[in-house]
Specification:
It is built from 4 helices and 4 strands, in the order E-H-E-E-H-E-H-H. It is an alpha+beta fold and about 150 residues long.
């Protein structure tokens, strides 16, 4: 059977429990149609780059699916009908990624970094040369030009 990665975005005003129920509902449909969900990851409530149906944030969930194409078509049909689902994306893959997905690794990396990120102590700026002293000649030229305007 073909392998898919399926991500859907749910409205921001849903609770995490309601999003979990949506995931269970979609997993049930896949199981009924002869497929299986290998892994389900809840990525949390994330900010969107732009508003989608008046939502600035969305709950994001990833499903690693092994199912016939008809099962994915049914899931996508139900997501189009469900007002709680803002967007979805299904991609066929050669094999599923082992361990946590890139989004989950990003969350772990962000937790390890300190309050200032991974910049640490940046030290002195080296992009400029030494500052030179202004001569009296330059100062008098600027004052004359300012007076003639």
């Amino acid at each position: 059977m073909p392998l898919y990665e399926h991500v859907y975005l749910a409205r921001q005003d849903l609770s995490a429990q309601q999003v979990e129920e949506l995931t269970t509902q979609f997993s049930g449909v896949i199981a009924q149609m002869g497929g299986k969900v290998g892994k389900s990851e809840y990525w949390g409530l994330k900010s969107l780059s732009y508003r989608i149906r008046k939502n600035r944030k969305a709950h994001m969930t990833l499903l690693n699916v092994e199912a016939p194409a008809a099962a994915l078509n049914e899931i996508e049909r139900q997501e189009r009908l469900n007002e709680d689902v803002l967007r979805y994306l299904t991609i066929r893959v050669e094999e599923h990624e082992e361990g946590p997905s890139a989004m989950m690794r990003k969350v772990e990396r962000d937790d390890r970094r300190g309050e200032r990120g991974d910049r640490g102590d940046r030290g002195e700026r080296r992009d400029r040369g030494e500052r030179r002293e202004r001569s009296d000649e330059e100062e008098s030229t600027e004052s004359r030009q300012g007076g003639e305007e």
